[in-house]
Amino acid sequence: MNRYQVCATVLIAVGGFICEPANGQTQSRLFGVGGPVGKRLEEIDMATGGALSGWSYGPAGVFDTRLACHQGRFIAINAVTSTGGPQRVATFHPADGVRSEVPLTGVAFLDAIRSLESDPTTGTLYFASKWVLYTLDQLTGQATTVAPFNGSPYTWEWVHAIGIDDAGTAYAIGSHDGALRTAVYRLELSTARLTWIGEIVMPAGSGDFFDIAIEPGGDWWASYWDVGIVPALRGLWRIDPVTFHPTFVRNIDRPYDGLAFLPPTQQVNYCTSKTDSLGCAPAIAGEGVPSPTASSGYTIRATNVRTGAPGALHISVGNRVALPFAGGSLCVAAPLRRSPTAPASSSGAPTPSCAGIWELDFNTWMSQTTPLSPGVTVRAQWLGRDGGFAPPDNWSLSDALEFTLRP
Fold first, then answer.
1. How far is Cα 262 from Cα 321, in angstroms, rounded to an integer?
2. Across the chain, how many H-helices and E-strands are there?
3. Distance in angstroms (rounded) separating the CA atoms of residues 52 and 64
């Protein structure tokens, strides 16, 4: 392939990443921790409320509660245990679920944690007990008091949960009066002042919100526990951010202890695939979180591939190109790095057909052979052999994928 390669200026864009959406991306993904299976972090299907996939954790740690997406990681706090063990700050990698802990300091053991949120505009991590707002350093576990919650017009009040939208506007929900109706407040993060703006009226009238997460540009999602005799109302709810009207999504008993949105991977398709000798036009796509600090969790695949055709993924940190090659376009610039060649899977499909798939866990391959840094922009394209064409055009080429590595 050297005769088709050209010199290119290497373009490496290094920068930080925080858990906030970027223009042009697809929908953010909802995750929950705890819930019906206890020690588990999992992605939630936003159409059905069901679990898609996730990671389970062994008996060594206590149950995690509340959840935030902060500086490219999920953050949770261990629940208070009956044994009186120390609360800890847990960090999860969103690609492979690898978990680490540090002790939580600066807050009383019995001051039960009610919520955990990250401000995407300042990069500050907040958490709250029923009565006090704190900031938190997730690396050291050190909590710093902001102030007790104040400003509520009700004499009997405690905060269920706080949420921060992608513009940095913070909200709190809390119980008020004997009917346990849920008040909605705008929250001033610098003073912990609450300003009443409305009310959530749940069908049963009496319950406890475990956590809320605000979808960028969309509804609030809530994990709700009905304390009455209607357990069917326990689980996931959507709340309209204007009217605060709740809509039931799915019964989950026990509800998730924490919810958070993970922004989608910054990735885009470009260039054009080559139609092969069977009429297949391989289409490339990426799924997961590309990260050089994870050992797995980002699959790059091509579908609509001729079954059995050998193929390899070619990557570059150079500019986008569209160079004539084998009757199609080579879309990644030299110098190129290539994965091992493997035949397209068939999954029992007739051979030959267009039901083949090339796929590779990019994080696994990168961690073993191709060290790169967070913030680098990578471009990838699948190339394979096509015996239906005479040389030198006996190649099959997908379109290309451009993506940015997270921390």
1. 31
2. 1, 31
3. 19
Q: What helix, strand, coil percent values describe the chain, rounded to 5?
A: 5, 50, 45
CB 211 within 8 A of CB 259: yes
Q: Which run of H or of E encompasses 43?
A: strand 40-44
Contacts of 177-185 with CB under 8 Å at 24 or more apart are 179/205, 179/206, 180/205, 180/206, 180/207, 180/227, 181/205, 182/207, 182/209, 183/152, 183/154, 183/157, 184/244, 185/151, 185/152
Distance CA 235, CA 279 (A): 47
Q: Which residue has the tokens 């940190």?
A: 317
Which H or E element spans position 103? strand 99-103
CATH number for the region 2-16+266-404 comes to 2.60.40
**Homologous superfamily assigned to 29-262:** TolB, C-terminal domain (2.120.10.30)
pLDDT digits (tens, 9 = 90+) for 138-176: 999 999 999 999 998 776 678 889 999 999 999 999 876
Enclosing H/E stretch for 280: none
**Of 298, 290, 311, residue with least CA distance to 357:** 311
pTM of the model: 0.87
